[in-house]
Amino acid sequence: MARTGAADDAVVYSQDRERRLRMALYVALGIGAVVAAFAAWVLVGVLPDDSGALTYAVSLTVAAVVVLGVTGFALRALPARTAEAKRWCVVVGVLLLPVSVLLGQLGFVTIVVGLSVLFLALIADDPSLDTKPGVPKGYRR
After folding, report:
1. Which of 42, 64, 97, 134 is 20 to 30 A from 126 in CA distance terms?
2. Is the pTM higher than 0.70?
3. How many angstroms separate the CA atoms of 8 and 76, rounded?
4. Does residue 54 surpass a pLDDT of 90?
5. In sequence order, what are the residues at sequence separation of 6 or more whose Cβ sits closer than 8 angstroms to the Cβ of residue 24?
6. How many other C-beta atoms can be found within 10 angstroms of the C-beta atom of residue 95?
7. 135: which DSSP letter?
8. Which of the 8 DSSP states describes residue 136?
9. pLDDT: which is higher, 117 or 128
10. Residue 132 above 70 pLDDT?
11. What is the pLDDT of the chain when averaged over all its residues?
12. Are 129 and 17 in contact (CB under 8 A)?
């Protein structure tokens, strides 16, 4: 996504939130790899005259490529902790929800991971907590 100005340069995530999002995105990347492996397994087992299985395998392949690509972009943008990273994380979370329909029983895990990424990406965070170690801002002893 193209940068639009100074608003994209502002830090929107704390270091802790970045770490948690990174873990969730690695799980999403793993789901994409499992979908790609499953698509390859279905493609290898497709009979020449079984058009339904071929359609399913192609759908799985497209879903795997899209999930892997978008998750890779989100992981690449995340260290900056900017609004661009937030947009990519939201796209990953939203994208995992319709992909879960294709996966049968693995779809439940995909829904949980997608909602987790959306939750982590969208809830409010205070990056100013990273400014100094120790006592959080607003805490009195």
Report:
1. 97
2. yes
3. 15
4. no
5. 113, 116, 117, 120
6. 20
7. S
8. P
9. 117
10. no
11. 85
12. no
67-96: pLDDT as tens digits: 999 999 999 999 998 999 999 999 999 999
C-alpha span between 64 and 59 (Å, rounded): 9
- Interatomic CA distance for residues 94 and 28, integer angstroms: 12
Round to whole Å and give the CA distance between 65 and 86.
21
Are 62 and 118 in contact, with CB atoms under 8 Å apart? Answer: no
Q: Kindly state the tokens that stand for 106.
A: 């693995």
**Distance (Å, whole) CA 2 – CA 54:** 36
Q: Give the span between the Cα atoms of 80 and 112, in whole angstroms.
A: 26
Apex 36 CA angle, 34 and 41, nearest 5 = 95
Instruction: Name 39's Cβ contacts closer than 8 Å, sequence gap at least 6.
Output: 57, 60, 61, 63, 64
Sorted by sequence, the CB contacts under 8 Å of residue 63 that are 6+ apart come out as: 35, 39, 99, 102
Query: H or E element: which one contains 41?
Result: helix 15-45
CA dist 36 and 92 (Å) reads: 16
The two tokens of residue 96 are 């995992």
C-beta atoms surrounding 59 within 10 Å? 15
